[in-house]
Design brief:
The chain is α+β, with helices and mostly antiparallel strands and 400 residues long. The chain has 2 domains: 5-168 and 315-399, no CATH class; 177-269, no CATH class. Helices cover 59% and strands 18% of the residues. It contains 13 helices and 6 strands. The protein has helices spanning 5-14, 21-24, 34-73, 78-114, 117-123, 128-152, 154-168, 271-277, 287-297, 303-318, 322-334, 345-368, 374-399; strands at residues 177-187, 190-204, 207-215, 223-233, 238-249, 255-266. Helix 10 (303-318) runs parallel beside helix 13. It starts with a helix and ends with a helix.
Length: 400
């Protein structure tokens, strides 16, 4: 009887393998049930393997090949390429967390089922929901870590990587130019009352060119300012307009007077310059920074770009929760009763991840087209995944 799988399993639950003895004997873990510690012990190695495997794969396909091409074609110094490669690693590690969570839960419960350990747990009266609980708890913990990692480390690393690469290739890059910068300033107390309309034909070399400002601060259009160039004075917090004309508009729409100037300082918001100089992508910003930029971008009237940033902000919140979704799906699929031992973990993980990210890209496309709201476009894959995982879990519990 002592060699039967149920008794051997209980013995393993009580006598944990030696590599984990020191960790599990820590006082803060003494109150954790033995079953939970055993399940977590089984989940951690495949999770760490998954983080390494998926992040390495992403780095190879997403960064290494591009950097090698730049070294060979653009003369990028190898030392700079290594630095950029290291700075881009956190981005791919963050993306690997949800994939590794799926791999860990699927491999762990698939192995426990193939060795009859889940059968032993059922024989002891332990329900499926009970042994899945530690996996879901770990998935929630990984979700929090992923969110913090993506906020505290990834944006800074991405920005520094692009800055280093741009400086190294600056001789081959044209000067930064933005065109058709528009900004609408509204009354702080009444966001429907337009105060000023700002337009610049282009931004180049730190200067705005072809500037036009329509002033609606008093009832109706009061004046029109045009200038060849405009430069922001950070010390005085004002705009310096050069070689321009001010048209004072009468109530009937005619010009009361026309004034020309060589230099004119006017206190206007800095936001038009922020729009012109903003070169960071959503991946290079935290949620707070992206929301601040979105508040400025809303005044530009570029609704396509506004919607894109709304979706990106929602995805920054939704993507870490994929860890919980994939953890649930992996635990449910791995807990399904098996007629014979199977090694389906890694291949099934890759297949699920492929279809899940296709769903993410599809929902994003529908959201950018206006079919879905930004919130629904970012969160619909998670809602679908939770529903699918709950359905499989109920099926596994019914067949147990």
């Amino acid at each position: 009887m002592s060699d039967a799988p149920p008794y051997r399993t209980i013995k393993r639950l009580i006598n944990l393998p030696s590599p984990w003895v020191w960790l599990w004997r820590q006082p803060w873990l003494a109150q954790v049930p033995v079953l939970d510690r055993y399940i977590l012990q089984e989940l951690l190695p495949p999770f760490l393997f998954g983080v390494g495997a998926f992040s390495s794969l992403g780095l190879s396909l997403g960064a290494l090949f591009e950097l090698v091409r730049r070294v060979l074609e653009s003369g990028l110094p190898p030392a700079i390429a290594v630095q950029v490669f290291a700075l881009r690693a956190p981005y791919w590690v963050g993306l690997a967390f949800p994939m590794a969570t799926l791999l860990a839960t699927l491999l762990t419960f698939n192995r426990l089922g193939s060795t009859s350990e889940l059968t032993a747990l059922r024989a002891c009266g332990i329900s499926l929901y009970r042994w899945v609980a530690p996996a879901l708890a770990l998935s929630c913990l990984i979700t929090g870590l992923t969110f913090l990692f993506n906020e505290a480390i990834v944006p800074t690393a991405n920005y520094q990587a692009n800055q280093v690469l741009e400086r190294a290739l600056s001789s081959d890059q044209p000067k930064t130019t933005q065109r058709n910068i528009t900004y609408q300033e509204f009354d702080p107390e009444n966001d429907r009352e337009l105060l000023r309309q700002f337009y610049a034909s282009r931004y180049e070399g730190g200067v705005l060119h072809g500037v036009t400002v329509l002033d609606f601060s008093e009832q109706g259009l009061q004046q029109i300012l045009t200038a060849n160039t405009a430069l922001w004075d950070e010390a005085r917090r004002t705009w310096i307009f050069s070689r321009g004309t001010i048209y004072l508009v009468s109530p009937d729409g005619g010009y009361r007077s026309i004034l020309t100037f060589e230099r004119q300082e006017i206190a206007l918001p800095r936001a038009p310059l922020d729009l012109a100089t903003q070169r960071r992508s959503p991946e290079e910003m935290t949620i707070f920074e992206a929301q601040n930029y979105l508040s400025i971008l809303r005044q530009s009237g570029d609704y396509e770009k506004i919607r894109k940033w709304q979706i990106r902000i929602q995805q920054k919140i939704a993507i870490p929760f994929i860890c919980v979704v994939l953890g649930l799906v992996g635990a449910a699929l791995g807990s399904l009763p098996q007629s014979r031992p199977q090694n389906r973990g890694f291949g099934l993980s890759v297949l699920i991840i492929f279809f899940y990210y296709v769903l993410i890209f599809t929902c994003e496309a529908f959201s950018r087209a206006g079919v879905f709201s930004p919130f629904l476009g970012a969160w619909l894959p998670n809602f679908f995944g939770i529903g699918f995982g709950a359905y499989i879990l109920r099926r596994a519990a019914a067949r147990a």
